[in-house]
Amino acid sequence: LVALRQEEAKTGEPDENGFVRPGVEARQHAAMALSMLEKVQRTMPNEGYGLAANVYQWLGQHDEALATLERGIRADPNASELHDRYQDIYVEMGQTRALASAYRRFVRENPGQTILLWHQGRALVRMADDLRSKSSYASAQQAYGQARDCFATYVEAVPLHRNSANWWLAFCDLSMARMASQSGDVDTAKQR
User: Fold this and answer.
1) Are 179 and 140 in contact (CB under 8 A)?
2) Confidence of residue 189 (pLDDT cuts 50, 70, 90)
3) Are the C-beta atoms of residues 86 and 69 closer than 8 Å to each other?
4) Which of 1, 36, 97, 181 makes a 20 to 30 Å CA pair with 56?
5) Is 90 exceeded by the pLDDT of residue 16?
6) How far is CA 108 from CA 49, 72, 101, 155, 175, in A?
7) Considering the entire predicted model, what is its pTM?
8) CA-CA distance, 8 to 26, in Å (whole number)?
C-alpha cells in the first residue's frame, strides 16, 4: 500500500488541495489491510488501531484515522502511542480546540481512567501553545491553567509519576509567567 501510494503521489494528478486520490489497486490493498487489522485490534489494540490509522492517513481519510485512533484509545487508554498520534493529527489539521474538547469528553465518559487526565493536560498544552502563537494570550493563559490543573489532579492520583508531572506543571507555570511578563504584568509573572 505504501509503495503504491508513493508511486501515485509521484505520477498522479493532485486535486485542488494538492492531494492525489488513491487508485483502485491502492484502495483494494487498503481494504485488505484493514480487514486483517481488525483481528489485530482485538489482541493488540495499540498496534492494530495504530496501523489502521496509518492506512486511513495514506488514503487521505484523516477523519477516519481519528475515529480509528479514538476507538483504540477507548480499547486501551494506556496506549500512549495512540494518544500521541491522535493529538498529532488534530494539531496537523489546525484543530487544537477540537482536540481539547475530545479529551474533555474522554475524561467525562471515563472518570476512572486517570491516564486520560495526563493526556488531557498534554492536549490543553498543545491548544495553549497554538493560541499563544496566534497572539490569543488570555485564552492561552486559561488553557495553560487548565492543563496545570489536569497534571496536578493526575499526580494526586498517581504519585509515582510525580517527576514527570512536575515537569509539566513547571512548563505550564513557566509558560503562564512568560506570557504575563510579555504583557507587562510583572507581579503575576513573579507569582508563577
Assistant:
1) yes
2) low
3) yes
4) 97
5) no
6) 22, 17, 10, 18, 26
7) 0.86
8) 9
